[in-house]
Amino acid sequence: MKVAELEGVLLDYWVARAEDLLHPHIDDGLCWVEKPACDGDPAGTLDTAFTPASDWAVGGPIIEREDYCLPRVNTNVGTLHHGGYAASTPAGFCFYGKTPLIAAMRAYVADKFGEEVPDEATTGTKPE
Questions:
Q1: Do the domain assignments include residue 119?
Q2: Cα–Cα distance between 54 and 103 in angstroms, integer?
Q3: Strands (DSSP E) along 1-128, which ranges?
Q4: How far, in Å, are 44, 46, 65, 72, 75 from residue 112 at the CA level?
Q5: What is the pTM for the complete model shown?
Q6: Could you tell me the end-to-end alpha-carbon distance of the chain, in angstroms, rounded to an integer?
Q7: What is the C-alpha to C-alpha distance for residues 123 and 79, in angstroms, rounded to an integer?
Q8: Domain count along the chain
Q9: Contact at 8 Å (CB) between 68 and 107?
Q10: Distances (CA, A) of 72 to 28, 63, 99
Q11: Is position 89 within any domain?
Q12: Pfam families given for it (predicted)?
């Protein structure tokens, strides 16, 4: 699957994979990751929704840490139309999105995995 086409829950899933979070999986239209319990007991882990492509509180720290520039763009290049935002990575990847979060999270996934990722996502159950 092309990273440039990732959006919504699949984009969230691949950002979770890039962040190396515990057991990312998709269920009920959301990406979930496992968080350890406050007391450190592995039996007390909790699933929490992970939404970096739509929530600034989650995606914003990634953008800040990675130091992405997110200019608003509206250009026509040949038959391509890019309206929205662009995000460039130090590795030279440039991705577009309707929102700055989508553009930046696509760039982040590409920076970690390349311009294509396997067409996979764990749905419903956590991987073992």
A1: no
A2: 11
A3: 22-27, 30-35, 46-49, 72-77, 80-88, 94-97
A4: 30, 26, 14, 24, 27
A5: 0.84
A6: 24
A7: 35
A8: 1
A9: yes
A10: 32, 15, 9
A11: yes
A12: Phage_P22_NinX (PF10765)
Closest Cα to residue 93, out of 71, 75, 115?
A: 115
Tell me, what CATH number does 44's domain have?
3.30.2120
Whether residue 25 is contained in a domain is answered as yes
Side-chain half-sphere of 36: how many Cα atoms within 13 Å?
Answer: 6
Domain of 67 in residue numbering reads as: 3-113
Asked whether residue 125 is assigned to any structural domain, the reply reads: no
Distances in whole angstroms, Cα of residue 41 to Cα of each of 47, 74, 111, 128: 14, 50, 33, 18
Express each pLDDT in 14-35 by its tens digit. Answer: 999 999 998 999 999 999 999 8
In a 10 Å sphere around its CB, with 0-12 CB exposed, 13-18 middle and 19+ buried, how is residue 37 labelled?
exposed
Q: Output the pLDDT for position 89.
A: 80
